[in-house]
Write a structure and sequence with these properties.
Blueprint lengths: L21 H16 L10 H9 L11 H12 L12 H20 L3 H9 L5 H7 L5 H30 L7 H11 L5
Length: 193
């Protein structure tokens, strides 16, 4: 599928932020851009999530008005023979996101083989459970324990922050709700991925 999005967007280095999985962050931006720049294609197929994501998007390509490109995508889909529900394994956009995810996991695996980057990830970096497990497939065996260390440090930090937050809630202090989102990302990955 041709879109105006390429893998040349943000690099892993640009996505490094304490408390956020860099792969999740890149994929969230990639998916948003992909949805915004999708245009009619003969073999385009959409899953439930991406159909609704397109419907919510402005879908503005460089020379079209907001919504025009999405309207054209939906018109093209309605002209095709109707089939049953499209699963994520058949969805054109899901396949593009998966390709981007693999590219970013490979990039992260490569970066982890450098001393300074590995040290920063060990002491400051964040990975969600899903991407940590997938990352192990791309790193040399000697680095799998580092991925486990990062994941365990993240788990312990979140657990401590949640305990503190729970105590604050008992006293009527409700600031710090972003912690719940960070914990959700750690446990299940970025929303929509």
């Amino acid at each position: 599928m041709k879109t105006e999005t390429t893998s040349a967007g943000a690099s892993i280095n640009q996505a490094l932020t304490k408390g956020t999985c860099p792969v999740c962050g890149i994929l969230k931006d990639f998916q948003w851009t992909l949805t915004e720049t999708t245009h009619p294609q003969p073999h385009l197929r959409l899953c439930n999530f991406h159909g609704w994501a397109l419907a919510r998007s402005r879908g503005k390509l460089s020379r079209s008005t907001p919504g025009e490109s999405v309207t054209n995508v939906f018109l093209e889909l309605l002209k095709k023979p109707l089939t049953g529900k499209v699963g994520s394994d058949q969805c054109t956009l899901c396949r593009r996101v998966l390709e981007e995810e693999i590219a970013r996991l490979r990039e992260l695996a490569q970066k982890l083989q450098t001393g300074m980057f590995a040290q920063w990830m060990k002491t400051q970096g964040t990975l969600c459970i899903d991407h940590a497990e997938k990352l192990k497939e791309f790193v040399p065996l000697r680095l799998r324990s580092l991925v486990d260390e990062i994941l365990e440090r993240n788990r312990v930090e979140l657990e401590q922050e949640l305990e503190t937050f729970r105590e604050q809630l008992k006293h009527g202090i409700h600031e710090g709700g972003g912690l719940l989102g960070r914990t959700a990302e750690f446990l299940v990955g970025q929303r929509g991925l």
